[in-house]
């Protein structure tokens, strides 16, 4: 509930503070006194955009603050979602500078306007004289019926399944698009894959072919050099290996005469063994190298194929070429597997759809149970508020599955007992919509906890008994909900738990708007003035006393 509203430097309000009761709060005052200015200020802390032109004093800033007492469970989803600290009371504050800069706060934490507006839906239901478009919306009409059903778990379980269904549908469409695109490329990818598969290159083959071709192309030069090396090492007139052997033997003969000679002799022996091994390796390599014209032609052909494929696929190595081959293989394989995946998703879709239809049928049945009692109660209330010939009818038709079942819900209206029912948006006047909205909200409030309800001149166009009945309905609504009502009707004012009077003060050379809570006697006098004028008659005073006491 809205416990306190503080307004500083707004429009013609210098400073105003008002504490509201938890039941029916009525605000009255002369036309132009500033009643709607209060709602304008309140709308700023509910997320409306600010106009710097509303500053009372252009040198200071405007501050609007609302203190709400809340049940933590009521607003917990919002505070968890935005990671804000939750206390037993919530303070919304809006500051507007003379330069037009606006700042918003929730419990002194800066927030943006969208967050402020989101939180306000948990705290306040603002119903203004011309704010009845909501009643014409199908979503609101469905919400009314579901509030009367009052089985939120049933709908929540359905919506969880529906979200899963939507995700499967989305995945199916994406997979279809992927398959269609893949099919366009399938023939070309398969051609590329077949070309690479037919080539049959193995790891590092092209690089190996390069090395082999160099060897084959220089076979004669290689053999000549290797023969020369081998000849000088082993078969020359004085082979290097023989000379080393002799030198090592000579040094060995001096081993007894100098202590460092044996080490040098050992090193010569190691060199001899190393060169002997080199000679054997040279001979082995020489035996392996042969000029082979036929092999050169084969390698050239294979190498040319490899270079052509490397160039075609814009890569440099066999490894990259093989990676492309693997990628193409996966793409082709994936296309062949997509049909199977689509079939599985289609089966899943069908299963979920059948399950949803069954759940939606249960929801539809619950809604249909509420239609007749709802129509009867609303029509009775319409008669109470001065519309005895008006009728409402709820039409529920079955349509496609959607997030709230498969029902299309339409409120139909007949204002003149003509049995010519038509959608509310086409036939109901503004005054009729206002009273119809009040009747509906009073019924919904019996099933669910609504936030603070604010009605701005909902009584426009009615008087007498109809106005009294509007007051009765508001009084009943206020037993379980905080209601704030701006009215010109004494019959409604008489039902107030707290009666506030808005007035203009012309002192200090400036006209300002103020508000004060009336005492019981002040209420009687003011209501009498509303009945008969500035100087109320004794009869008006007695009538007012009866209204306040009833």
UniProtKB/TrEMBL annotation:
The keyword Transcription regulation does not apply. Residues 2-505 form the RecF/RecN/SMC N-terminal domain. Keywords: ATP-binding, Coiled coil, DNA damage, DNA repair, Nucleotide-binding. Residues 123-185, 328-362 form a coiled coil. Belongs to the RecN family. May be involved in recombinational repair of damaged DNA. This is DNA repair protein RecN.
